[in-house]
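Annotated sample (chain length 243).
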Amino acid sequence: MSDTITELQDIADQPRGAMRESLWRALILLLLVGLTLLACRLFRHIETRSEPGVIMNLPENLGKYLGFDSDITESERVILPRDTEFAKKQYDGFGSGEITAEIVLSGAQRQSIHRPQVCLAGQGWAIQKEETIPITLADARVQKVRILTLARTEDGVQIVGYFIYWFVGKDKTTDDHFERIFLTSWDRVVHRVNHRWAYVIVSSIFPVKKNITDQERQNVLSDLVSFTRELIPQIQKPEVNAR
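Output written by the structure step:
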């Protein structure tokens, strides 16, 4: 008899349990809808695309180097979105080697900016060394850049080069690709800024020769860093806080 009473109580409790579960689901759904509407209201004024922190006009000359306009490769134009902007010059030091400077400015799509390590590997370069170095500017600000030491073999001869890069947002910079991704999301939500990132590259390749001394390597790298130090104030807007 007691078993029968228990079963009847369980049957009676089932609608109540189902009702409570439905009520909780409805409350959770209302909460999610409310949060979504709140987020839309709070972030409706986020800039769809902020002004870039760079000037898309490389200097005609820089120190002892004279610049000449250089064409963008066809692969860059094909792979990257159509609204991507470019600026590229080849600088001749007339006895001090050549330096290539390039700015890639993203458009509405984020695919314009990517990790250079991927493209360099696709071009046959091996990265022998990767490091971040601080460059002290004339106004005492410190700019961090990433330096890659590159090598590849052509016709049995090793070619060596250096590749310096960093990213510039609306008001900040970073040399780290993953930090750039974090800053993109963080500043969009917290500061309502949608960075239009620029990817700045300064590179130099040694002339083809069989033996390159350590002193020659050091001289080229030193010239490249000095060139970058002078270039930064020329292409980054004053409101960009180099870091």
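Annotation: The longest strand covers residues 142-154.
Annotation: DSSP finds five helices and nine strands in the chain.
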